[in-house]
Amino acid sequence: MLKQIIIGGIVGGITLFIWGFISWAAMDWHHATVRSHEGINAVVENIDEHLPETGVYYFPPMTFEINDTQAMEAWLELHNTQPHGMIFYNATPGEPMPPMRLVRGFLVDIIASMMATILLVMALPSLGGYWSRVFFVLALGVFAIMSVHLANGVFHDMPMSWTTGVALDMTASWLFVGLVLGALIRPQQNA
Q: CA–CA distance from 104 to each of 6, 99, 188 (Å)?
């Protein structure tokens, strides 16, 4: 079983990594999910003077105690009448895609595939054939999409284009991993 988990993790991780490269670098469908506009320059001008540390910032900010009803009413009025959103901010300048980010991403892909392999091995007795194994792994991916990305899209007002794009990308990712793991991870034949 350990050999299956290691092989499934590595091969599945390679599959995820290759699909991620194709999806983000070779295809242009993420251009519809990540916007670029000259107006962003005005928004981020001097941002380092106003946001001193790396973090996720919500605006309009809740810079008051939650039980301050007057401040809460003012904040709600701002939220209801002005744009709102989140800023994912990195205060440290750096390369757009440093090599270590790719290494960390690949390791995360391997670990995710190892987890899918463990669950697949545990479920093998109840799965019929190849397509059942493929669908099982795909269902794991869809579960992750729904519990993370769709939930974030709903509760954090993320744009539908972003949420849909990420969901479709991850669905394809886990379909490909399912095709690979479904072929690699099979019930052991009794001797």
A: 17, 9, 33
Residue 89 domain-assigned (yes or no): no
- 121-164 pLDDT, tens digit each: 999 999 989 999 999 999 999 999 999 988 888 888 888 888 88
| pTM of full prediction above 0.90 | no
- Structural domain for 161, as ranges: 2-37+97-184
Domain count, the chain: 1
Q: Amino acid letter at 77?
A: E
Using the CB atoms, write b or e for 89-102: b if 16+ within 10 Å: eeeeeeeeeeeeee
* Pairwise CA distance, residues 13 & 111, whole Å: 7
Q: Is residue 80 part of a domain?
A: no
pLDDT of residue 182: 96
DSSP states along 22-64: IIIII--GGGGTS---THHHHHHTTHHHH--SSEEEEES---S
Query: Are 158 and 35 a contacting pair, CB within 8 Å?
Result: no
